[in-house]
Design brief:
The protein is an alpha+beta fold and 378 residues long. 19% of the residues lie in helices and 27% in strands. It has 2 domains: 184 residues, D-amino Acid Aminotransferase, Chain A, domain 1 (2-Layer Sandwich), CATH 3.30.470; 125 residues, OB fold (Dihydrolipoamide Acetyltransferase, E2P), CATH 2.40.50. Helix 5 links the parallel strand 7 and strand 8.
Length: 378
């Protein structure tokens, strides 16, 4: 790798710890009234993680796009965009609001993913750049790097009929009819297949384009708002959305040594599950003002860092609690015994995610279980 390539990569990684490093609550705004049977904020259907693509009958496979989950509501000239965490997205993607307003259908509720394509690949970095307070910057970026909306579900049709209780097989068929005659390149129906081999091909052949994996949904299921039943995700990399409940200072340089990660359990307690320290010296300094402004919060309300351990040192027990507002996505190798067994790698901030949605459930099976709960201790 050349020195120039290394420098470019380092600059990109450093930028990732700064761009959109804000709590989801800072995106909060009231939604205008809209005369529809389904109104924002409406919890989207969730997915649980799986190791392999499920086989068998009654599965519909879709690409898992690396973007912002978005519900789109329209009634007449009113168009509202809602993030996964229930916050308004319209001000950050004005070109998407306008494109939806130009559709021939005057009312609908759609579920899909906002993505930005650059150089034939999906660019999550460009999405994060949109989460900015300056409207002038957003308008400029909306022209330089316009977003697209990939739609995979129809919750309310153009006649105002709610479809959330109808099976996915019916909703998918109606979505196909909904897109009949639509020629907007920025709003497209997301591809799907019932063929397992096609889904496996997506996992391998599309991985280099920013494609995030595969989602599998049960065709007989209704739209399970806010639930993780009937829908699984299989990712190209193992990643998790975690709450930053605290941090440790670096032993040298005055920056941030590690972010302490948490997940919420069934009782609503935030448990410490691991750490991320995959930062260079510049990133450690950039992180400092981001996390220090949240110092003094409650931190972890369940299991906390710094407990007795044969690896503990005097310094390893020193940590600073934070207000549990920041969400970041990390990659990991293995999760067992209620924690990441090795250090995780920081991937990016997720201002579109509500901290309370960062639960063990996203990891698939009963990831937070202890050996005692499973009856395997004496």
């Amino acid at each position: 790798m050349s020195a120039r390539t290394k420098s470019t990569k380092a600059n990109k990684e450093t930028k990732s710890v700064v761009e959109a490093a804000i709590p989801a609550e800072e995106l909060e705004q009231p939604f205008p009234a809209i005369d529809l049977p389904i109104r924002p904020p409406f919890p989207p259907m969730e997915a649980r993680s799986a190791e392999e693509i499920p086989a068998g009958e009654n599965w519909l496979y879709e690409p898992k796009w690396d973007g912002f989950r978005c519900l789109a509501f329209r009634k007449g000239g009113e168009v509202l965009l809602q993030s996964k965490s229930g916050q308004p997205l319209g001000r950050y993607f004005p070109e998407m609001v306008e494109a939806l307003r130009l559709l021939q259908h005057k009312q609908f509720v759609l579920d899909g993913e906002i993505v930005i394509m650059r150089g034939g690949k999906l660019s999550f970095d460009d999405l994060l750049m949109r989460i900015h307070p300056a409207e002038s910057r957003i308008r400029k970026l909306s022209k330089e790097t316009p977003a697209s909306y990939l739609v995979f579900d129809l919750l309310l049709d153009e006649k105002g009929r709610s479809l959330i209780q109808r099976p996915l097989s019916e909703r998918w068929s109606k979505l196909g009819k909904f897109f009949g005659g639509i020629r907007q390149m920025s709003i497209r129906r997301s591809p799907a297949t019932t063929e397992l081999e096609e889904a496996k091909r997506w996992m391998t052949e599309l991985s280099g384009s920013g494609f995030d994996g595969v989602v599998a949904k049960r065709l007989e299921m209704a739209y399970m708002s806010g639930e993780r039943t009937g829908m699984v995700k299989i990712k190209n990399i193992r990643s998790a959305d975690c709450v930053v409940g605290g941090f440790r200072y670096a032993s040298k340089g005055g920056g941030i040594g590690s972010l302490l990660l948490g997940l919420y359990d069934d009782e609503g307690k935030l448990n410490h599950v691991g750490f991320s320290s995959s930062f260079n010296s510049e990133m450690r300094i950039k992180l400092k003002p981001i996390v220090e402004k949240l110092k003094g919060g409650s931190g972890f309300s369940g299991n906390t860092p710094g407990g007795p351990s044969r690896w503990s040192t005097e310094r390893s027990g020193e940590w600073e609690p934070l207000q549990p507002k920041l969400v970041c996505e990390v990659t990991y190798d293995h999760f067992s015994g209620g924690r990441f067994r090795h250090g995780t790698k920081f991937l990016r901030w997720r201002p579109d995610k509500d901290p309370k949605l960062c639960t063990y459930e996203q990891l698939g099976s009963k990831a937070g279980s202890s050996l005692q709960e499973l009856g395997l201790t004496a």
